[in-house]
TrEMBL record:
This is Cytochrome b. GO terms for molecular function: metal ion binding; oxidoreductase activity; quinol-cytochrome-c reductase activity. Residues 14-225 form the Cytochrome b/b6 N-terminal region profile domain. Heme b b566 binds at residues 111, 212. GO terms for cellular component: respiratory chain complex III. Keywords: Electron transport, Heme, Iron, Membrane, Metal-binding, Respiratory chain, Transmembrane, Transmembrane helix, Transport. It is found in: Membrane. GO terms for biological process: respiratory electron transport chain. The main subunits of complex b-c1 are: cytochrome b, cytochrome c1 and the Rieske protein. Its cofactor is heme b; heme. It comes from Asticcacaulis benevestitus DSM 16100 = ATCC BAA-896. The chain crosses the membrane at residues 43-71, 92-112, 127-149, 156-177, 197-216, 247-264, 306-326, 338-357, 377-399.
Length: 429
């Protein structure tokens, strides 16, 4: 927190000299060693550290891959294959980078759902939440541009679909489309632009992460009770208590990460991306990566192209407004039994949208009978996408404001220590 007094004492002459001129050691000590953290943090709070690990892995492996990659429409696909076959441990670096993107999004979705459940977006942490949303948006942009770089069939046509969607935006859309494509179609200039931006944006993300951590240290961490720190008894030093917990979670996360890298490296990719891009042969089903499928389902849920694009961007934009949509004075859904059920439905809705995004629009979820023309009658993928998309927006724009005013929450503990002692006594009893 901003009012946390520094306890760092320089031990050597060099430390005293540096501390008087550039107190970077003091900053690190106060931020990551003696920083007071709520004593009731659970393992859901370890995903912040896991995300920092993912970002570091992506930047390091990305720099190495950039040394061997050729951003040319005629050579890009072959350069990726050369990385896999001829560069020492190139296969490992590429698989770590490719699967690292999925691991990154897996961790960030858990991190966001945790923040949503425990009310980490509420005052005084609105700016902290907004910075996190900016990081998420930059991640989506970076991942999309990185998906294009292998220049396989799915990469190429994914770029065609998404850039054309951006072109549907009134007034500014055509100009942005021309700038992104570098011409009138997805080709070599497009690949060069995407490669440049894909290389740049992770460093922008790192800069926003620094602001995110800064905002976190100003306001202090939220906790499962949603009660602010009242006294020193509510806290523990960040090291060793939080660092050991974060370290253990990172080990388990890296084990799962390694399983994908070494045993199922292509499980989250698409087979068509191992075929070189061919503008004359369109794949039967164009889909983005799994972490973008919910937004893709919202896009396809509406027959009008422009409205679908606007809804897709609105699905991301509404997250930015979350601190001002929730009207409840209680932060944690641990004490909001009604809202908790709507939250569970929201999580299932997001999973359902992801599933719909990966299916063909003509597919049926289930069929009851056939009409006179032999067409199936039942719940189609498009209809299910429309239902789920409606609930997605209703959760933020209708349910959250209304329930916040009408719900009768459970009693909230007076302090973090009181909640910890109550939980301890309950377990003993």
């Amino acid at each position: 927190m901003s009012d946390h007094p520094s306890t760092y004492t320089p031990a050597t002459g060099i430390e005293k000299w540096l501390d008087a001129r550039l107190p970077i050691v003091r900053l690190a000590y106060d931020s990551f060693i003696d920083y007071p953290t709520p004593k009731n943090l659970n393992y859901w709070w370890t995903f912040g550290g896991i995300l920092s690990l993912c970002l570091g892995v992506q930047i390091i492996t990305g720099i190495i891959l950039a040394m061997h990659y050729t951003a040319n429409a005629d050579l890009a696909f072959d350069s990726v294959e050369r990385i896999m076959r001829d560069v020492n441990y190139g296969w490992l670096i590429r698989y770590v980078h490719a699967n690292g993107a999925s691991m990154f999004f897996f961790a960030v979705y858990i991190h966001m759902f945790r923040g949503l459940y425990y009310g980490s977006y509420k005052a005084p942490r609105e700016v902290l939440w907004l910075l996190g949303c900016i990081i998420y948006f930059l991640m989506i942009a970076t991942a999309f541009m990185g998906y294009v770089l292998p220049w396989g069939q799915m990469s190429y046509y994914g770029a065609v679909v998404i850039t054309n969607l951006i072109g549907a935006i009134p007034i500014v859309g055509p100009s942005i489309l021309t700038w992104l494509q570098g011409g009138f179609a997805v080709d070599n200039p497009t690949l060069n632009r995407f490669f440049s931006l894909h290389y740049l944006l992770p460093f922008v993300i790192a800069g926003v992460v620094v602001l995110h951590v800064w905002a976190l240290h100003v306001t202090g961490q939220n906790n499962p009770t949603g009660v602010e720190i009242k006294s020193k008894e509510d806290t523990l030093p960040f090291t060793p208590y939080a660092t050991v917990k974060d370290g253990l979670a990172m080990i388990f996360f890296l084990i799962v990460f390694s399983i994908f890298v070494f045993y199922a490296p292509d499980a989250m990719g698409h087979a068509d991306n191992y075929v070189k891009a061919n503008p004359l042969q369109t794949p039967s089903h164009i889909v983005p990566e799994w972490y973008m499928l919910p937004f893709y389902a919202i896009l396809r849920a509406v027959p009008d192209k422009l409205i679908g694009v606007l809804l897709m961007f609105a699905a991301i934009a509404v997250i930015f407004a979350l601190p001002w949509l929730d009207t409840s004075k209680v932060k944690s859904m641990r004490y909001r039994p009604v809202m908790r059920w709507f939250f569970v439905l929201f999580v299932l809705t997001c999973i359902g949208l992801g599933w719909c995004g990966g299916q063909l629009p003509t597919d049926m979820v289930f069929s009851l009978t056939n009409d006179k023309h032999g067409n199936p009658i039942g719940l189609s993928v498009v209809l299910l996408s429309q239902i789920l998309a409606f609930y997605y927006f209703a959760f933020f724009l209708l349910i959250m404001p209304w329930i916040g005013l009408k719900e009768d929450p459970l009693p909230v503990p007076a302090s973090i220590s009181e909640a910890v002692l109550a939980s301890h006594n309950k377990k003993k009893g």
